[in-house]
Every structure is written in C-alpha cells, then in structure tokens.
Amino acid sequence: MSYRGYEAVIGIEIHVQLSTKTKMFCADSTSFDAGDNENTSPVSVGMPGTLPVVNSKAIEYSIKTGLALGCDIRKKSIFARKNYFYPDLPKGYQISQYDQPICENGSVTFTVDGKEKTVSITRAHMEEDAGKSTHFGEYTLINYNRSGIPLLEVVSGPDIRSPAEAAEYARTIRQIVRYLDVCDGNLEEGSLRCDCNVSVRKLGDPQFGTRVEIKNINSFRFVEKAIEYEIERQIDEVERGGKIIQETRLWDPDKNRTFSMRSKEDAQDYRYFADPDLLPIIVTDSMIEKFRQELPELPIARAKRFETEHALPAYDASVLTIEKDVADYYEETAKGAGNFKASSNWIMTELMRELNSAGKNIKDSPIKPEQLGRMIALIDKGSISGKIAKTVFQGMWDSGKDPEVIIKEKGLVQISDAAAIEKIVDDVLAANAQVVDDHRSGRKKNLFGFFVGAVMKASKGQANPDMVNKILQEKLK
Amino acid sequence: MDLTFATICEIAEAVKTKKISAKEVVVHFQKRIESLDGKLNAFTSRNENAVKDAEMLDARIARGEDVGALAGVPFGIKEMFCTKGQKTTAGSKILENFVPPYDATAVARLKNAGVVVLGKLNQDEFAMGSSNETSFHGAVRNPWDLDRVPGGSSGGSAAAQSARLVVGTLGTDTGGSIRQPASFCGIVGVKPTYGRVSRYGMVAYASSLDQAGPMVSSVKDAALTLEVISGFDPQDGTTSRKQVPQWSQNLNSNMKGLKVGLVKEYLTAEGLDSDVQKTVENAVNELKKMGAEIVEVSVPLTEYAVPVYYLVAASEASSNLSRYDGVKYGFRAEFKNLSAVDLAEFYSQTRGQGFGAEVKRRIMLGTYCLSSGYYDAYYTKAGQVRRLIMEEYLAAFRQCDVILSPVTTAPAFKIGERISDPLTMYLNDIFTTSTNLAGLPGMSVPFGMSKDGLPIGVQLTAAHFEEQKMLNVASALESVSTVKGKHPHVV
C-alpha cells in the first residue's frame, strides 16, 4: 500500500493477559472487580525475602497460544529480571523473559479486503504485569492488584503494511486467544493491550525507517486511527526534511493524535539477567503433544469446515466463527435442527438481532441452541410454518420455554389434518360463490392466490400451506 | 542440669519429660542476655512474648501434646530472617521499622518444632561483610576477646551462641557468613547444600548463593536443627524435593576407610597464619589416627573464587535490593515538600540515606557488572568460571568423601583493623566462597586454639546432599577438639 510514494512498516506487540485464576508467581486472585490492593500478598508487593513460584497454568496457556500461532516451543526457557525503578513496580524489577522466550518463530494468516495476509510472529514471552499508578497532582495512589498478573507478550515481525492490516492482525490474535480460552480479550479492562511500532520509507527502499512506538491504544478502531495518524505525521516530517526520532508516543483518542512520551535517548539499561529465584522452564515433547491435543479447532479451520462440510456460504462461515461461542451455538443448533443453512439464517438474523438489542452475549441467550434446533426441525417437519415460527421464536425469547410448549400454549400448531382443512376450504368457497364462479369460468384470471389467502386467514395461519394448495386445486377443478 | 551449657538435645528432652519447664529455660537465658549482651551487642531486638510463648508450650506439654523435636529450646534468629510481628531489619537503616506479617519458612519450622525465639541477632548490613562492623545496629564484639570481631556476617549469632545467651541460633551463609563467624567464636556452623533449606522469608542478598543454617554448640545439635529446617517448600521453587535424612540419629564417627581430601592449592595459600595451619595439620593427624585415608585433590580455579563470588553476589544484590525504595515499607527520606520532589530525587535521597557504605559499594559494583557493554566481560564470564569451579569440585569428590581445609587465613581480627580496606576484607573469604559458588554443603567445627587464646575452626565440605559425611567427620573431630570444654571469658 502506498502513501504519497511511501510505504509503512508496522510491527505490533500485543500484551495478552492470561485468564488464570491466580497470579503468575503467587496465589493472589486475578479478579478484575476487587477493591484497591485487595488482590495482594507479601509476594506481589515485593516484601523482603518473598519468592516467586511459577503458576503452571500460565505456562500451559502460553504454550497453547504459541502452538495456535504456529510457534516453536522452547524446551528450556528462562525467566529474566528487567531492572528499573518505578513506584508501581514493587520489586524494582519485572520478571520477564529475554533471550530465551517460551515461543518463537510463528505466523498468523488472515484476510483483509478479500486478500490473504500472513504476518510472522517473532516471539511470545511470559512476564508479570506491574501495578497501576493514579496521579492526583499533589500525590499518587498505587494499586497493586494488577502486580504479578500473567501476561504473554506476542511480538509480530515488521510485516504489516497498512492500518487495516494492523487492526485485522490484532483482531485475529484476539479471536485466537479467545478461542483458546486463555484470555477474555477485553480491551477496555486492559486484558489485551496493543503497542504499535510504525516507520515509513520510500517505496522500494530496502532500509527500514526509524521506528516510533505508540502506546495507550485500547480499541481496534484506535489501532487503525493511531497508525493512520502516525504514518501521515512521519511522512510530513520526512517530506519537510526533518528526521524521525526514535521515541515512544501515546495515542490521545480525544484529540485523534499521538504525542511524544519519551525519547529513546533517556532509554534505560534494563540490566536483564536470569532470575536466580526461578528454575528454567523445561517443556517436554509429551507436554507439547498433550496441549496440542487439547487445542480447540481454530477459527480459520472451523470456517473452512462450515463451508465444505455444511455447505454454508463463505460469508455465513466467517460471521459464525468470529466468536467461538457463536460457532459452538451454531453447531449445537444445527445438530438438533438437521439443517445447516436454516440454523445459520436463524442465528445470523433473528437471534443476533435480539441479542444485540438486549446487549446480551450468546452464552446468556434465553433460547438455548437445542431449543432453536428443535424449532427449526418443527418447521421442516411441517408442524409450523416459517411465519408461525417467528411468533414461536419470540415466545421462546421472552420466556425461555421450549418451542413445543409455546406452540401448545398459543395454539400455534399447524393444521395438517386433511378433513379439517377441507372443511375450512369448503366454508371459504361457499362464502365466496361469486369468486368461485369467476375463477371456474375463466372470466377473471389469477384468483388462486385469493383463495389461498382466504383459507390461511380463516385458519389463523395454522393450516399447512402445501395441503391448502393441494385441496384448493382439487376443489376448484 | 547446668542449663547454660546444656545442648539442644538435652534441653528438648528435659522439657518434653517435664523435668524442667520451657518457661524456666526461657527465663534463664533471658537473664543471661540481660546481664551479658551489653558487652556484646549481639541482640538487636527481643521477643517480648517469649515467656508467654514458653507458657503456651508448657500448657501443651501438660495436655500430653507432642510439641516437637526442639521443645522449649531458646533460639536467637539472625536479622536476615523475617519473623512475624517482630522487627526484621537485615542490619540496615532502610528496614529500621519493618515488621513482616509472615515468618520465614526456616523460622516457622523451628517454631513448629517447639523453639522459643528470644530475639533477633545482629549482622552485617544485608549480610554484606565479614566482621559484623557494617551493621546499622553497631559492631558486635567477640566473647573470647571483646576487642575483636566475631566475624560476619552472622556475627550476632556466633557471639550470642558462643556466650551462651541462647541454646541455638540461625544464620545465613552467602560466601562464608555462617562458617567464618562460627570459626572465630568457637561454635559449630553449617551451610547446607543449596536447595536444602527454603529461602522463603530470608532477606535476599545473592539468591543463587544464600542458604540458611544452624550455628550451635555441638555437631549433633547442628544435625538436629538442620533436620528441622530442611526440606522442600512450595514457596521456594529452588528447594530440593530430596528426602531429608535423619542426620542426628545417623551420626557415625568411625573414620575407617573414609577418604579425606586436602586441596593442594589451599596448602600453599599465601598469608596463612601458623596457628591456623597447625590446627589443620592436627586435624589431619587425628583423622589419620582414626583410620581415615588422606588424599590430595586439586581445585585450581579456586584461585578465582573470590573475584567470581563478588561479581555474582554484587550483581544479584544490585537487583535484590532494588525493592528498598521507600515507597511501600521501610525507611523513607524526609522531604520538606514531598509533592515537589521528583522521583529520581526521592529514590536517591531514600536509598542514599538508608543504605550504608558497604551496601552501596556492592550495589554499584553489581549494577556496573550487569550494564550493557560490560555484562559479557563480567557477569557472563563469572558465571562460566563458576560452572568450571563446580565441575572441579565434582571431580575432586570422585576422589574423596569430604574436603578438609582452613575456614579463614587467621583467627578473629581486631575491630577496626580491616574495615577501611575492603579488598583485604574480601580476601578473608578465600576458603569459604567456592563452596557457595558450587552449591556444596560446608561447615566449620571448632578444633584448635591460637597462641592468643582464640578458637580456630576447620572447614569440611562434601558433595551435593552429602551432609551426613561432613557431619560424621565433624563429629569425629569434635571428640578430640582442643576447644572442647573451653568457654569465652565473658561467660
């Protein structure tokens, strides 16, 4: 993609907060809604003599993420200390990984504007989060609830070339970690944090330009906007004959711009060294194999399967697989319904509309997938018409009751008894003798639809339309 | 029973069988502390609840409960160990007001075994020192000669034990901090294999070298105390899951066929005091008489042990001590207008005033070693040499069961004699640091007396997790030690 003859080179670091119940190195809770400093202990506030002990769930989640991103898993990886002073960093160092991260050399593929794009994953390493400082002018308050929460930092190669690709890359990572159930992917609560490295160069130039890191981006829309702004700013700067300074900039969502936070000149020497309190993490082949077996089907593979095995259109397949919960709901529904396309239609239109307007997740839907599946099966069996089904659906949504119950309660069952329909038809024909005459004599054309409508109306929509057609045809001969 | 000179085993037995109450024992030693510690400065704080703790133990014993192997034994605990509800300063101003809400695992295990803690013991600041002169609480005096140092960093533990202000003490050893003061004060000090004793709750100096251990009056007491504090701890990922042997019951002083190694390089060490040399020679002769075989082994890289030790220890310390920043606990510098002070100033004032000179020296040294551009030349290189030193020891232990050596080049020196000359002070650690670098168990057992009437210990080292062999030789030497039955004048 070209911007005034320039090309953007973008790499993204995504901090994935692993959804373990306890912290990376101690048993503190990781709950988001705890009171200030409630989720702390001598270990997480760095009291003298306390020691970190690795949470094995965090290792498992990291390995699973690495496998899903096609990474090599290191058989031996090392925790290192990143030393710097800051009040919300209780030990004066952050436990992270440096030259021997747990995951390396992966890639992820996604589609942007109908084109497939592959971005390399350089590495994914584990680290603990710091606390949170809140400044009040005269003083600062520190909340250590976040201190020690496990993070997996996923670092992409400099392969991204446009803001749209960047946003789609980040969405894809979010989709994958949510599928794996290792992160809730909540950007607003900081469960997923994107730092974007952006540089520009003249098209065709083999050298990278000086890169700028943008932080404080808490939505995918802002990933796009911040990078968009930064590309233009850098090109303006270069065109003006200026130099890009290697620095960290913050995204200001109110002003729609980035501004300088600190330049690399006051960059710190983190004095990384292997943490002597923690033994190397040894990962065996059998562990890797076990975790690989436990991996769920990932979104791209699942969408492919929906297209080939369920014969769904590509659009349906991709919408249904954005969220694992939706895809699970769809498969469960289809199993009960025995009809893939109808299941997809009902979920993508009626159910999504209701969920959106109620602000509900599909997991909290009052209609359970097996109920929806049974309702679709009832349509296919001819027990209810498609039109009646909408009323049944509404009843199910409002009450959470089974479709059969709604049908019974509201008397919506389809009339498929030939004698009963014949009686209705006879009544309709008797009441409309003149029209029957017009039809039979051929004086007026296209009256058949009138009779169908009249019969359906007389049956309150419950008569089986196919049978109504058949019986009318015979009687009107 | 003469309580003052009773062993841990004797007191625990007497308390358990109700021959004496824990309270009587505690009160006896509290009186000794009261009358003698003014001369020694071994205690930094006392446990106000010690009598109450003893009464509770007595009540449990009266109810027929088993209160543990160390029932009613009064202990002093080095300041380096966190003690729940009791000040833990690590000998530093920066922690002058710190009261931990938790016990170090080693302390918790002692308490669970029936120990009554009488108080906290003086030490060099953050265990950085060999003379106990760097402490924020002032120097400790050697009970054998009040003008001399007790050694360090566990100087308070050694002095208190040697003067019998307590029946047992706990020390820590990063480069000799248990063994050297034990030698200077004529007591038994054991640094177990790295990973034997949990480091949880022990203020970290150099994490890959630090180990806790007993500093007591007999080999059997050391073995018993070590049994109590050793073993896997889920709160310390570097502790070993190996089973803890019953060292005290398995003590065996039969030396027949045992191979005792002498390190060739140590025999020719420069500046070795003649009394120390004679003490080691006497120990060799006694062991030979008992049927041990003496073999010469070589650990050539031991020449680099002191510089490697100071590079590794200072590097780790520079990071370990970063948490003392005045933000969360401990000392904070006073500022007239705190909100106008920038963060760098806040840190430099707090840490500048809170740390002593020796600690600052090591933080600077360590920060320098880990800095980009110097890292490979210092930290990486030190790590490589450390690995080679360990391999040399492993090779040596294929030829012998234990290694016998001096603990220090000379007996206890005068207070003030070396404090202004850090390099000479550091060389004091020449025989002790390689044990920590290699993660081996080592101990000091009192064996000879100097012309000036000062005790001299000999050092025993064994292969990883072979504490039993080392304790066995120590117990054989103990039986013929010339320090036996001698006590410091102050007692």
Q: Give the integer mean of the pLDDT values of chain A.
A: 93
Strand order of the largest sheet of chain B: 1-3-2-4-6-5-10-11-9-7-8
Q: Output the radius of gyration of chain B.
A: 21 Å
- In the sheet with the most strands of chain A, the strands line up as 2-6-7-10-1-11-12-13-14
Shape of chain B: globular
Query: Hey, which two chains have the biggest interface?
Result: A-B, 31 and 45 residues
Helix and strand content put the structural class of chain B at alpha/beta
One letter per element, helices H and strands E, the order of chain B comes to HHEHEHEHEHEEHHEHHEHHHHEHHEEH
Largest sheet of chain A: 9 strands, mixed
Mean pLDDT score of chain B: 96
Q: Which superfamily, in CATH terms, is the homologous superfamily of the domain at 3-254 and 442-479 in chain B?
A: Amidase signature (AS) domain
| CATH fold call of the domain at 3-254 and 442-479 in chain B | Amidase signature (AS) enzymes
What is the CATH architecture annotation of the domain at 3-254 and 442-479 in chain B? Answer: Alpha-Beta Complex
Question: How would you briefly describe this protein structure?
Answer:
The complex is a heterodimer of chains A (477) and B (491). Chain A is an alpha+beta fold and 477 residues long.
Q: What does this molecule look like?
A:
Chain A is α+β, with helices and mostly antiparallel strands and 477 residues long. Chain A has helices spanning 56-68, 163-180, 220-239, 285-294, 299-308, 314-321, 324-337, 340-358, 369-381, 386-399, 403-409, 418-431, 433-441, 448-458, 465-475; strands at residues 6-17, 72-73, 76-77, 80-83, 93-96, 103-112, 115-128, 132-135, 140-143, 150-156, 192-202, 212-217, 247-252, 257-263, 273-274, 281-282. Chain A has 3 domains: 6-287, no CATH class; 297-409, no CATH class; 418-475, Arc Repressor Mutant, subunit A. Helix content of chain A is 40%, strand content 20%. In chain A, the strands form 4 sheets. Chain A has a 9-stranded mixed β-sheet. In chain A, strands 5-4-15 form a 3-stranded antiparallel β-sheet, with no helix packed on it. Chain A has a two-stranded antiparallel sheet with strand order 3-16. The termini of chain A are far apart. Chain B has a domain at 3-254 and 442-479: Amidase signature (AS) enzymes, CATH 3.90.1300. Helix content of chain B is 38%, strand content 13%. Chain B has helices spanning 8-16, 22-40, 50-62, 105-112, 155-162, 179-185, 219-229, 247-250, 264-267, 274-289, 305-320, 343-354, 357-370, 375-396, 422-427, 433-438, 467-479; strands at 43-46, 74-78, 116-121, 168-173, 188-191, 211-216, 259-263, 293-297, 402-406, 442-449, 455-462. In chain B, helix 11 crosses helix 13 (357-370). Chain B is α/β, with parallel strands linked by helices and 491 residues long. The A-B interface holds A 42, 45-54, 81, 83, 85-87, 90-93, 137-139, 142, 269, 271, 273, 276-279 and B 81-82, 88, 90, 95, 98, 100-102, 104, 199-204, 206-208, 234-238, 315-316, 318-319, 321-323, 325, 327-329, 338-339, 343, 347, 367, 370-372, 375, 379.
